[in-house]
Protein backbone atom coordinates (compact mmCIF):
# COMPACT_ATOMS: atom_id res chain seq x y z
CA UNK A 1 0.00 0.00 0.00
CA UNK A 2 1.32 3.45 -0.96
CA UNK A 3 0.99 6.25 1.55
CA UNK A 4 0.74 9.79 0.23
CA UNK A 5 1.96 12.48 2.60
CA UNK A 6 -0.50 15.10 3.77
CA UNK A 7 0.21 18.26 1.71
CA UNK A 8 -0.83 20.45 4.66
CA UNK A 9 1.59 18.78 7.07
CA UNK A 10 4.53 20.94 8.18
CA UNK A 11 7.67 20.39 6.15
CA UNK A 12 10.88 19.23 7.73
CA UNK A 13 13.57 21.89 7.32
CA UNK A 14 16.42 20.75 5.05
CA UNK A 15 19.21 22.88 6.49
CA UNK A 16 19.02 21.92 10.10
CA UNK A 17 16.72 22.38 13.04
CA UNK A 18 14.42 25.35 12.51
CA UNK A 19 16.43 26.73 9.59
CA UNK A 20 15.16 27.67 6.20
CA UNK A 21 17.15 26.82 3.12
CA UNK A 22 17.88 29.65 0.68
CA UNK A 23 18.51 27.18 -2.15
CA UNK A 24 15.84 27.30 -4.78
CA UNK A 25 15.42 31.07 -4.82
CA UNK A 26 16.63 31.01 -8.41
CA UNK A 27 13.39 29.38 -9.51
CA UNK A 28 11.40 31.96 -7.55
CA UNK A 29 13.28 34.79 -9.26
CA UNK A 30 12.77 33.11 -12.65
CA UNK A 31 9.04 32.83 -11.93
CA UNK A 32 8.78 36.51 -10.95
CA UNK A 33 10.87 37.51 -13.96
CA UNK A 34 8.49 35.67 -16.30
CA UNK A 35 5.51 37.61 -14.94
CA UNK A 36 7.21 41.01 -15.02
CA UNK A 37 8.84 40.50 -18.41
CA UNK A 38 5.54 39.24 -19.84
CA UNK A 39 3.80 42.47 -18.87
CA UNK A 40 6.69 44.60 -20.16
CA UNK A 41 6.74 42.67 -23.42
CA UNK A 42 3.02 43.28 -23.90
CA UNK A 43 3.56 47.03 -23.53
CA UNK A 44 6.65 47.06 -25.78
CA UNK A 45 5.11 44.90 -28.50
CA UNK A 46 1.74 46.66 -28.66
CA UNK A 47 3.38 50.09 -28.72
CA UNK A 48 5.68 48.80 -31.48
CA UNK A 49 2.74 47.47 -33.50
CA UNK A 50 0.68 50.63 -33.04
CA UNK A 51 3.55 52.93 -34.00
CA UNK A 52 4.40 50.85 -37.09
CA UNK A 53 1.03 49.69 -38.34
CA UNK A 54 -1.66 52.08 -37.07
CA UNK A 55 0.07 55.46 -37.11
CA UNK A 56 0.94 56.73 -40.57
CA UNK A 57 0.18 54.77 -43.73
CA UNK A 58 -0.06 51.37 -42.08
CA UNK A 59 1.71 48.28 -43.30
CA UNK A 60 2.31 49.76 -46.76
CA UNK A 61 4.86 52.18 -45.29
CA UNK A 62 7.15 49.44 -43.99
CA UNK A 63 10.14 48.93 -46.22
CA UNK A 64 13.92 49.19 -46.04
CA UNK A 65 13.80 53.00 -45.82
CA UNK A 66 11.25 52.88 -42.99
CA UNK A 67 13.46 50.59 -40.89
CA UNK A 68 16.56 52.63 -41.76
CA UNK A 69 14.77 55.81 -40.66
CA UNK A 70 13.64 54.24 -37.39
CA UNK A 71 17.07 52.88 -36.53
CA UNK A 72 18.64 56.26 -37.24
CA UNK A 73 17.34 57.42 -33.84
CA UNK A 74 18.70 56.03 -30.55
CA UNK A 75 15.18 55.83 -29.09
CA UNK A 76 14.06 53.15 -31.56
CA UNK A 77 17.37 51.34 -31.35
CA UNK A 78 17.00 51.01 -27.58
CA UNK A 79 13.30 50.14 -27.91
CA UNK A 80 13.97 47.32 -30.38
CA UNK A 81 17.01 46.15 -28.42
CA UNK A 82 14.93 45.98 -25.24
CA UNK A 83 12.26 43.97 -27.07
CA UNK A 84 14.88 41.62 -28.48
CA UNK A 85 16.68 41.00 -25.19
CA UNK A 86 13.52 40.72 -23.08
CA UNK A 87 11.81 38.38 -25.55
CA UNK A 88 14.90 36.18 -25.86
CA UNK A 89 15.48 35.95 -22.10
CA UNK A 90 11.76 35.33 -21.52
CA UNK A 91 11.58 32.63 -24.18
CA UNK A 92 14.84 31.00 -23.14
CA UNK A 93 13.70 30.85 -19.53
CA UNK A 94 10.41 29.28 -20.59
CA UNK A 95 12.17 26.67 -22.73
CA UNK A 96 14.61 25.97 -19.88
CA UNK A 97 11.65 25.24 -17.63
CA UNK A 98 10.09 22.92 -20.22
CA UNK A 99 13.39 21.07 -20.69
CA UNK A 100 13.78 20.67 -16.92
CA UNK A 101 10.22 19.34 -16.67
CA UNK A 102 10.23 16.88 -19.57
CA UNK A 103 13.82 15.76 -20.23
CA UNK A 104 14.28 12.73 -18.01
CA UNK A 105 17.95 11.93 -18.61
CA UNK A 106 20.66 14.28 -17.36
CA UNK A 107 22.59 13.97 -20.64
CA UNK A 108 19.52 14.84 -22.72
CA UNK A 109 18.83 17.81 -20.47
CA UNK A 110 22.44 18.99 -20.81
CA UNK A 111 22.41 18.71 -24.62
CA UNK A 112 19.05 20.48 -24.99
CA UNK A 113 19.96 23.29 -22.60
CA UNK A 114 23.36 23.74 -24.26
CA UNK A 115 21.68 24.07 -27.67
CA UNK A 116 19.15 26.49 -26.16
CA UNK A 117 21.82 28.71 -24.61
CA UNK A 118 23.88 28.65 -27.80
CA UNK A 119 20.85 29.70 -29.86
CA UNK A 120 20.11 32.45 -27.32
CA UNK A 121 23.67 33.77 -27.50
CA UNK A 122 23.79 33.74 -31.31
CA UNK A 123 20.44 35.53 -31.73
CA UNK A 124 21.14 38.15 -29.05
CA UNK A 125 24.68 38.91 -30.26
CA UNK A 126 23.70 39.09 -33.94
CA UNK A 127 20.50 41.05 -33.20
CA UNK A 128 22.39 43.56 -31.08
CA UNK A 129 25.06 43.97 -33.75
CA UNK A 130 22.46 44.51 -36.47
CA UNK A 131 20.58 47.12 -34.46
CA UNK A 132 23.67 49.16 -33.54
CA UNK A 133 25.80 48.75 -36.67
CA UNK A 134 23.05 49.05 -39.28
CA UNK A 135 24.06 51.54 -41.97
CA UNK A 136 21.74 51.83 -44.96
CA UNK A 137 24.28 53.91 -46.88
CA UNK A 138 27.75 52.37 -46.39
CA UNK A 139 30.66 54.43 -47.64
CA UNK A 140 32.25 53.06 -50.81
CA UNK A 141 29.32 50.85 -51.83
CA UNK A 142 28.38 50.83 -55.54
CA UNK A 143 25.65 53.41 -56.22
CA UNK A 144 23.44 50.90 -58.07
CA UNK A 145 23.24 48.73 -54.93
CA UNK A 146 22.27 51.57 -52.57
CA UNK A 147 18.67 52.57 -51.81
CA UNK A 148 17.39 55.67 -53.60
CA UNK A 149 17.46 57.85 -50.48
CA UNK A 150 21.26 57.36 -50.14
CA UNK A 151 21.97 59.43 -53.25
CA UNK A 152 20.79 62.55 -51.37
CA UNK A 153 23.56 62.22 -48.80
Automatic annotation (TrEMBL):
It holds the Pfam family Sdh_cyt. Its cofactor is heme. It is a multi-pass membrane protein. GO terms for molecular function: heme binding; metal ion binding. The chain crosses the membrane at residues 28-51, 71-89, 110-134. InterPro entries: SQR/QFR_C/D (IPR034804), Succ_DH_anchor (IPR014312), SuccDH_FuR_B_TM-su (IPR000701). One of its GO terms (cellular component) is membrane. GO terms for biological process: tricarboxylic acid cycle. Keywords: Electron transport, Heme, Iron, Membrane, Metal-binding, Transmembrane, Transmembrane helix, Transport, Tricarboxylic acid cycle. Residues 1-21 are annotated as: Disordered. It is found in: Membrane. CDD domains: SQR_TypeA_SdhD_like. It comes from the Bacteria. The keyword Signal does not apply. Pathway: Carbohydrate metabolism; tricarboxylic acid cycle. Membrane-anchoring subunit of succinate dehydrogenase (SDH). This is Succinate dehydrogenase hydrophobic membrane anchor subunit. It comes from Cellulomonas marina.
Amino acid sequence: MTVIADPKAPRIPRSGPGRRSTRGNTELYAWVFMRVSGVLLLVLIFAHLISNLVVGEGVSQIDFAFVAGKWATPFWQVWDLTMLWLAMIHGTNGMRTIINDYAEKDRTRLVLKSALYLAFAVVVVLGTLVIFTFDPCPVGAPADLLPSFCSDI
